[in-house]
């Protein structure tokens, strides 16, 4: 016996595949005392108003907590009615704004995802920071235009960057709290560490296309550093060591590459070491001593500037107070190099010392 089959009606299939309309979602911020039972009363009150809680984040603030709740309100519920209900519970509802699906993501996952995007696309830092802070807009401006005290009818947060630029975040619907600002600072700190790449090698972007890499020195570089000294002129070696040396004793090479408490940075082109920089911290916590040596054929090509810049990055990573170097009287080469590296160098006395403060 043949069994008959009922085929679905074409219109019935179309209706079934249409998305079900989803009601709007709100993001609300409620300031309350940090006392047991307060949040439970808020949840009960929201249930009485037929609001469905979709997400909750607790933001500690001075004198209490700020609960950020993403909810789906009852159909036709006025926002002011919700605000009045929170006030009746002894809480202050500081903001009720529209929310979307992105507001339901775990905050930690949001920050980690934002950090990944910012690392992969550094130019997107303003948009990434806007998402992390739930800001209305984030702009990149010169430091003199940042003006942290300005309000512009809303709320602002200013984040200084290296150089003369700053990021300014603006938000009208609610003030920024400390936890949000801490997340933003952690994100920017991560981006700085990635950019500086303190532990790894750095390739120089040179207009002539020469493949020059800056990296830390190791004992295995002793022969290459010895050859660097051999290629340097007597004048270059005298400006570095302040004495008439032509060759470097073997026992010096180890101290040049792995100085006590310090580090060395080599400029390498192919298999040749063409420059050497040293950073030696002061045991008393004063400025760290720096020194540079660039072979004659590579001088005035930015190698010394790149080495000094890298030493400055390493010094800042170690929270060092500044840099200092001893130069011969009338030798202003290091001061000029520091200027090209964006640093401010100055003579510290008649003994030839040059000081370079680090911001």
Task: Kindly summarize this structure in a few lines.
By secondary structure, this protein is an alpha+beta fold. It is built from eleven helices and 15 strands.
Tell me what you see in this structure:
With 359 residues, this protein is of the alpha+beta class. The protein has 3 domains: 22-101, ACT domain (Alpha-Beta Plaits); 107-196, no CATH class; 202-357, Gcn5-related N-acetyltransferase (GNAT) (Aminopeptidase, 3-Layer(aba) Sandwich), CATH 3.40.630.30. The chain has 11 helices and 15 strands. It has helices spanning 10-17, 38-48, 79-88, 107-120, 125-133, 178-196, 222-231, 234-241, 250-257, 303-317, 333-340; strands spanning 25-32, 52-61, 64-72, 92-99, 137-142, 155-160, 165-171, 202-203, 212-216, 263-269, 272-280, 288-294, 322-326, 346-347, 353-357. It has an 8-stranded mixed beta sheet with strand order 8-9-10-11-12-13-15-14, sandwiched between helices. Strand 8 (202-203) and strand 9 (212-216) form a beta hairpin.
User: What's the domain count?
Assistant: 3
Q: At CATH's second level, what is the architecture of the largest domain?
A: 3-Layer(aba) Sandwich
Q: Give the low-pLDDT segments.
A: 1-23
Task: Briefly note the structural class of the backbone.
Answer: alpha+beta
The level 1 CATH classification of the largest domain is: Alpha Beta
**Beginning-to-end CA distance, first to last residue:** 91 Å
Number of separate strands:
15
The helix tally amounts to 11
Layout: helices, strands, pairs:
Elements: H1 10-17, E1 25-32, H2 38-48, E2 52-61, E3 64-72, H3 79-88, E4 92-99, H4 107-120, H5 125-133, E5 137-142, E6 155-160, E7 165-171, H6 178-196, E8 202-203, E9 212-216, H7 222-231, H8 234-241, H9 250-257, E10 263-269, E11 272-280, E12 288-294, H10 303-317, E13 322-326, H11 333-340, E14 346-347, E15 353-357
Parallel strand pairs: 12-13
Antiparallel strand pairs: 1-3, 1-4, 2-3, 5-7, 6-7, 8-9, 9-10, 10-11, 11-12, 13-15, 14-15
Helix pairs in contact: 4-5, 4-6
């Amino acid at each position: 016996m043949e069994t008959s089959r009922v085929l679905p009606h074409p219109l019935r299939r179309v209706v079934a595949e249409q998305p079900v309309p989803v009601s709007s979602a709100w993001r609300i911020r409620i300031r309350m005392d940090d006392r047991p039972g307060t949040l439970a009363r808020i949840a009960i009150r929201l249930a009485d108003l037929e609001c469905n809680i979709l997400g909750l984040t607790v933001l500690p603030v001075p004198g209490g907590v700020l609960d950020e709740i993403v909810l789906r309100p009852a159909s036709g519920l006025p926002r002011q009615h919700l605000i009045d209900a929170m006030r009746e519970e002894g809480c202050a509802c500081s903001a009720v704004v529209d929310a979307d699906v992105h507001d339901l993501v775990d905050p930690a996952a949001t920050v980690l995802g934002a950090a990944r995007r910012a690392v992969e696309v550094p130019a997107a830092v303003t948009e990434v920071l806007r998402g992390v802070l739930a800001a209305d807009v984030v702009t990149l401006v010169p430091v003199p235009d940042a003006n942290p005290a300005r309000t512009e009818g809303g709320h602002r947060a200013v984040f200084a960057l290296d150089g003369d630029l700053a990021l300014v975040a603006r938000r009208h619907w609610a003030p920024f709290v400390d936890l949000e600002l801490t997340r933003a600072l952690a994100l920017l700190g991560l981006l700085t560490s990635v950019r500086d790449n303190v532990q790894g090698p750095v390739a120089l972007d040179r207009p002539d296309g020469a493949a020059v890499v800056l990296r830390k020195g190791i004992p295995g570089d002793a022969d290459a550093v010895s050859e660097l000294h051999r290629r340097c002129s007597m004048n270059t070696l005298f400006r570095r060591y302040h004495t008439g040396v032509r060759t470097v004793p073997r026992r010096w090479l180890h101290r040049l590459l792995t100085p006590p408490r310090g580090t060395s940075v080599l400029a390498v082109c192919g298999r040749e070491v063409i420059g050497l920089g040293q950073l030696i911290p002061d045991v008393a916590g004063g400025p760290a001593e720096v020194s540079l040596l660039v072979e004659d054929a590579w001088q005035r090509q930015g190698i010394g500037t790149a080495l000094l810049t890298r030493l400055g990055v390493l010094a800042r990573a170690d929270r060092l107070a500044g840099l200092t170097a001893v130069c011969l009287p009338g030798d202003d080469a290091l001061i000029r190099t520091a200027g090209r590296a964006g640093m401010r160098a100055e003579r510290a006395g008649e003994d030839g010392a040059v000081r370079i403060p680090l911001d």
